[in-house]
Amino acid sequence: MRLALDTNAYSGMTRADASIIDVLERADSLYLPFIVVAELRAGFSLGTKGSANERELVRFMASPDVTVLHSSDMTLHHYARLYRQLRSQGTPVPTNDLWIAAIVVEHELTLCTRDSYFQRMPQLVVV
């Protein structure tokens, strides 16, 4: 399974959450959307363990099984389609999570998250 991590899944992994670890162990490869990296670093900047958390993130991203995904022109098209779909359903999601969904759809990944609103998007495979 090609697995993208949402911010809360990465955080669960660092806290050794058994349910997250179980999903990660089944993954063939891991992906971090750029917005997840940004959210993590924003959180680190507010916390008391910012430097240690940053070192751990850099170490994780350096793993050969981890790829950071950046937006492309195709991401923008997926974003627009998802935005229109959610708006017409009357079920918007936070903007950052819409970016995450667009990248996950673009790359045909499974998303590991604790946020149930991602299930409003049938294009996404969510665990």
In short:
This protein is 55% helix and 14% strand. With 127 residues, the protein is an alpha/beta fold.
The H-and-E topology, N to C, reads as EHHEHHEHHEE
Briefly note the structural class of the backbone. alpha/beta
Cα gyration radius (Å): 14 Å
Q: Helical stretch count?
A: 6
User: Mind telling me the CATH superfamily name?
Assistant: 5'-nuclease
Describe this structure in words.
By secondary structure, the protein is α/β, with parallel strands linked by helices. The chain has one domain (2-126): 3-Layer(aba) Sandwich (Rossmann fold), CATH 3.40.50.1010. 55% of the residues lie in helices and 14% in strands. Strands 3-2-1-4-5 form a five-stranded parallel sheet. The longest helix has 17 residues, at 73-89. The protein starts with a strand and ends with a strand. The mean pLDDT is 97.
Write the layout of secondary structure elements.
Elements: E1 2-5, H1 7-14, H2 18-25, E2 29-33, H3 34-46, H4 50-61, E3 66-69, H5 73-89, H6 95-106, E4 110-112, E5 125-126
Parallel strand pairs: 1-2, 1-4, 2-3, 4-5
List keywords for this structure.
127 residues, alpha/beta, Rossmann fold, five-stranded parallel β-sheet, 6 helices, globular
